[in-house]
Specification:
The complex is a heterodimer of chains A (187) and B (190). Chain A has 187 residues and is an alpha+beta fold. Chain A is 61% helix and 13% strand. Chain A folds into 2 domains: 102 residues, Peroxidase, domain 1 (Orthogonal Bundle); 69 residues, no CATH class. Chain B has 190 residues and is mainly alpha-helical. Chain B has a domain of 120 residues. In chain B, helix 1 packs across helix 2. Classes of the chains: A alpha+beta (187), B mainly alpha (190).
Chain lengths: 187, 190
Amino acid sequence: MSTLAVARRYATALVELTDAEGSLQEVEKDLARVAALVDGAPALADVLQTPGFKAEERHAVLEQILGKLGVHKHTRNFLFVLNDRNRLAALAGIVEAFGELYDERTGRVRAQVTSAKGLDAASITTLRNHLQSITGAKEVIVREDVDPALLGGIVTRVGDLVLDGSVRTQLRLLRDQLVAGQSVGDA
Amino acid sequence: MTRRILFFVAAALLLPTLALAAGGGGHSGPDIPGMIRHGINFLILVTILYFALRGPLSDFLKFRRAEVKDQLDAALEAKTTAEAKYAELQQRLDNFAAELETLRETVRSDAAAEHDVLVANAERSAKQLEEAAQRTIDEELRRARAELRAEAVDLSVKIAEDLLTSNITDDDQARLTGDYLSRVEETARG
């Protein structure tokens, strides 16, 4: 079975359980925290995800980390199950799949906002509110990225929806019109 | 005819008798009784021959007559055919000059028509070649113009990008952000 399928299967099981137990939101946040911690600590990732350490040793490490993070019992038990089954290497995929399933169940969408220069908080909030109106989502999570190659303006992607207001794209459209022999503004 | 044959047969049979009679000149006189006896024998022989040969000889002669008649008819028919052929050839010979002139005229006419067709075909082919060449030239010209235009546009866009990169200010970025948010808001309102 592929890693993606494994991740999807574990994520689905966890979503079903936590949704039924009413701990879906809390576990989602726990998993995000754990994923961020592992992602930011390569040494920890090595311990948890390489076969050089025994399951008992990984369990002990997890015990300490999860104790300090104060995660929900479902989060804790789920991670121990992954450790017992040597599936911690798939943790990132599981967290991503869990997030997608969580989004589907809670009406949450994720927006990738790329701008030539960093946006201020007010602009982000305004954009989030507009995106919420456009998508009809209950919540919009904005992930911001900066790409100077845009020259100016913003590009937002929400699923298949792309709102491209970048200067680079406008220049490209202008170039296509000129090459096609159209007067600027015809198209 | 039959009488003539009988005459010759009788003569042929009597001549030896006369010879024998002449050879007997050593005696006192002709042997009349012998001659009579020979004559009677001869008459008997002639009578026998006459009755024996009368039927076959008649048939032979009839057959021969018919054969000769057929040969004569065939010769007459061949002669008639030959005369007709001769007359036809003679007429053709008489008309040969006219036919020759007609033939020459036909050949001249056909040659002229063929010439016209060849010229028309050649002109059509030449026109098609010219049109194809013109199309190729037009297409190449169009392509060259498009390439030149694309190169010029790419160069212009690159210059514009460089200018924007070096000259765009924070205020410009803020204005672009504001414009973008306004358009997104319009989209949200539908």
